Amino acid sequence: MRDDKASSRRGNICVGPIAKRCQTLASAEMDLQRQHEIARTHRLGVGTNAGLAALKLSVGALAGSPALLADGVHSLSDVALNLGAWLGWRWASRPPDSEHHYGHGNGEALTTLVVGLVIVATGAGLIWGSIRHESRVSADLFGAAAVAAGLVSVVVKLALARFTARRGREFDSSILIAVARDNAADVLTSALIVVAIVGAIGGLRWLEPAAAIGVGVVIGWQGLRSAREAVGVLMLRAPDHQLTSQIGEVAAGVPGVLAVDGLRVHPLGTHLRAELEITVDGQLPVAEGHAIAHAVGDAVVSSCRRVEEVAVHVNPR
Fold first, then answer.
1. Against a cut of 0.85, is the pTM above it?
2. Is there a single domain that holds both residue 179 and residue 244?
3. Taking burial as the number of CB atoms within 10 A of a residue's CB, which of 82, 95, 209, 295 is the most buried?
4. CA–CA separation, 316 vs 281, rounded Å?
């Protein structure tokens, strides 16, 4: 029996020296639904952050609250970040072409990297701005409005963070998870802003710039985390060893597989590609070797949700 290769993708199987992108009608409908839901999540984030930015900037200017103004600038930057994330996701969802045989999935990781760096820069800018400005908020109608705006931001951002994180996990979207992490950090920052405004109204003027500096530090740390994860995808960092071991065990358990000689797993944007070498009986007909390779691909994509592409090389014993 001669060496052969088989490649599989979730929802269908394709065989040949060059793996082809194959999808059944059902998987195509699932992809279309996934794209629709991700786009809806991005649109929701853009609209929500635009509304919060307008609220906090206007109230912060009227109340003389540098902390609320800084939080408003942060929300305004979130609008740009969500737009960038949306564009990056659309770029990453483009199918393979003659120049990008594995698709454009890493475009999402690249956008995640840019988003993370912008978040870091935003945090540094907030720290600098907080050092230079003093609080003028007082116990009047505008001061109460500033507190109310901060509380509204806490509630809205908490809901948005949970929704975006759930969608990010559901669709294995690194950019949605990065955006959700930024939204979660915004919950903390808005809560700190509320405390600082109340303290400033009570006479502790230093609380507002101090809180704004803390906000900048938290934002910068979250941005660094997102950037680090994106670099891992772009550098084809292997997933956790537990998943790799699981794939190997699944492949070894397929009838007809005598050994798994090699296994490599690397990310392609939002999903994973596994490349395996399996050993089968050298006396088997070529067709049976193909069938075993098909079974290995089916078993891997069925048991490992994140793995959508599998290439199997068959070695005869």
1. no
2. no
3. 82
4. 6
